Amino acid sequence: MDTHQSPTALIESAWEELNSSDAGRRDLCLDAVSDILQTGRLAHSDVERAVERLVTIALSGESHAVRESALHAVRTAASPHYELPYRVVEPLAAGADGFEPVLLAYVLAVLGTTHDPAALPIVERFLHHPHPEVRREASDAVAELHRHRKSARDRTAQLPNPSGSVGKTTAPARPSPPGPGGQSAGGAGRRGSGPPPSVASRACSSTS
Question: pTM to 2 decimals?
Fold first, then answer.
């Protein structure tokens, strides 16, 4: 893989590598996809297409490691660089009950970062899950969704009303979303921030 290519070309090369029959190689190439998403240099439309493909992999019959890498990449895409529309990750919400606890923690973190009220009833179902990590991620996601809803109400209150007056003069600053690499306040994420895209891409191509 030519690391001097554009981010779009790099991610397309990584997708081609995913045709490998070796699960370890596919796992490594998903890491490369995650690193490219982390740069924040892709167009939002390209990010959405990448996430749709990653969601399909996460819901597939692939190995646990490959599905975790796919969810890790989705979590990376839902970083400060991008806000994923709920519709793009809605299949994860629909299939949430089928995920193992470790993978479910990723799913809940992703749903929280959509800031869409539609995700709230899904996430709230897991507040009393028997696995503590799932409960933590569900709690963090619920808090994030409520914070964003309150922030949206405050911003609306600033708009002039028909009499020409304005509501609150300042709205609370929106909290920074969980950091990339799948690490939120609840701790979902196994890889940290990962290597720079060029390192992961070289590692991906070196297995060919």
Answer: 0.72
